[in-house]
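re: the backbone from monday

yeah here it is again, tokenized this time
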């Protein structure tokens, strides 16, 4: 490579950053149709926007339409058009309706991002059987529903990509035993499907986020300053939704054509650094009153 090429590369990269906000080419996913569940906030919203910035046609799905419309409005402000479709990933009939709409509008689905899910923080001794089952249904069973139905309608015949957002549980996940079980199940499911569905041209992978700063932190009985002061990873900072979204873009792109059945940790070294415990962050009074941090007024 010539010196001139060396000098040109930073300018080209800067141009891509200016245009797409992520350093990827604006036509990286041109012509691809992507469905992002949980697209109304946080990682899902960031992922939808980054995919659109790379040329994908994006559908965002979630239980409530209003947040999805907010995502689409943010995308429209940058000149991207997205489709908001309400649906619960736990309900097969609602998933089918979303997929039928995608088929009618686009005739194809190339990428499924299983981002929807959720859990509550609790010591394992305080989790009820009903609470445990609800989190497993919300994360593991819902992911299976989405993946199987999307494969049946689109991908078993045409190929495609499936990317699941899991969680950083490889070193245990204190305070979240239910989601540790569910997300580990998702990772194992995706490895198995990667084996069975390779012959259909379907690549399946997972992205496991560490502590990511989103509005969703407000749902836990953990004061906001706890997230900032607790020493949770090796880098001394919290991740941002785009840190996860950019990994999703990479795995959705032609650059990842030789990757399947893997789970990529994007956690700032959190699972290599065990000096944190979510149980110690719980405010006892808030927990007993079933209060969320975003519902507590400052004194």
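seq for it, each position gets an aa:
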């Amino acid at each position: 490579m010539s010196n001139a090429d060396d000098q040109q590369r930073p300018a080209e990269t800067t141009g891509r950053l200016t245009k797409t906000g992520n350093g990827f080419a604006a036509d990286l996913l041109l012509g691809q149709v992507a469905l992002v569940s949980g697209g109304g906030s946080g990682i899902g919203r960031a992922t939808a926007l980054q995919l659109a910035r790379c040329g994908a046609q994006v559908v965002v799905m979630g239980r409530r339409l209003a947040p999805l419309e907010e995502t689409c409005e943010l995308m429209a402000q940058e000149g991207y058009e997205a489709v908001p479709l309400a649906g619960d990933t736990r309900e097969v009939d609602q998933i089918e309706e979303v997929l039928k709409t995608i088929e009618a509008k686009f005739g194809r689905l190339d990428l499924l991002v299983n981002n929807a899910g959720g859990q509550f923080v609790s010591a394992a001794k305080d989790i009820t059987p009903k609470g445990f089952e609800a989190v497993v249904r919300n994360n593991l069973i819902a992911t299976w529903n989405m993946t199987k139905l999307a494969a049946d309608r689109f991908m078993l015949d045409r190929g495609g990509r499936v990317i699941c957002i899991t969680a950083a549980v490889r070193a245990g996940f204190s305070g979240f035993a239910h989601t540790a079980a569910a997300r580990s199940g998702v990772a194992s499911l995706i490895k198995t499907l990667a084996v069975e569905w390779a012959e259909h041209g379907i690549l399946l992978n997972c992205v496991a986020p560490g502590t990511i700063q989103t509005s969703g932190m407000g749902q836990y009985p953990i004061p906001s300053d706890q997230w900032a002061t607790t020493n949770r990873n090796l880098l001394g900072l919290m991740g941002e939704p785009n840190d996860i979204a950019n990994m999703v873009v990479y795995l959705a792109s032609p650059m990842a054509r030789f990757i399947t059945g893997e789970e990529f940790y994007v956690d700032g070294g959190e699972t290599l650094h065990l000096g944190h415990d979510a149980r110690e962050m719980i405010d006892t009074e808030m927990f007993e009153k079933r209060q969320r941090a975003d519902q507590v007024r400052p004194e």
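The domain at 24-215+235-273 is CATH 3.40.50.720 (Rossmann fold). Strands lie at 33-37, 57-62, 82-86, 111-114, 160-165, 202-209, 263-266.
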